[in-house]
Write a structure and sequence with these properties.
It is a single chain. The protein is mostly helical and 82 residues long. Helix 1 crosses helix 2. It has two helices and no strands. It has one domain. The longest helix has 47 residues. It starts with 10 loop residues before the first helix and ends with a helix.
């Protein structure tokens, strides 16, 4: 696995993610993992799914903006007819 810096989140957010991962393993799997284990899990998910999730978010935003632009175009057409 390639080692990258987790720069997609602030240090405070990263700590919250690690805390959530540790809690998940404890609550759902009755397993105790430490910070190092949680960092490895976070890094795995970021490297494995991060780009795909990011690209999906970009597509979703693009679609929302297109819908809004289309709606504004209709409204402008209605205004120019009046």
């Amino acid at each position: 696995m390639r080692k990258t810096k987790l720069n997609f989140a602030s240090e405070e957010e990263r700590r919250a993610y690690l805390k959530a991962i540790i809690a998940f393993f404890h609550d759902e799997r009755s397993e105790e993992i430490g910070i190092v284990g949680a960092e490895k899990v976070l890094e795995f998910f970021f490297q494995t799914f991060g780009e795909e999730i990011y690209q999906k978010a970009i597509r979703d935003v693009r679609n929302v903006l297109k819908e809004r632009a289309d709606s504004l175009e209709v409204e402008l057409d209605l205004l120019s007819e009046g």
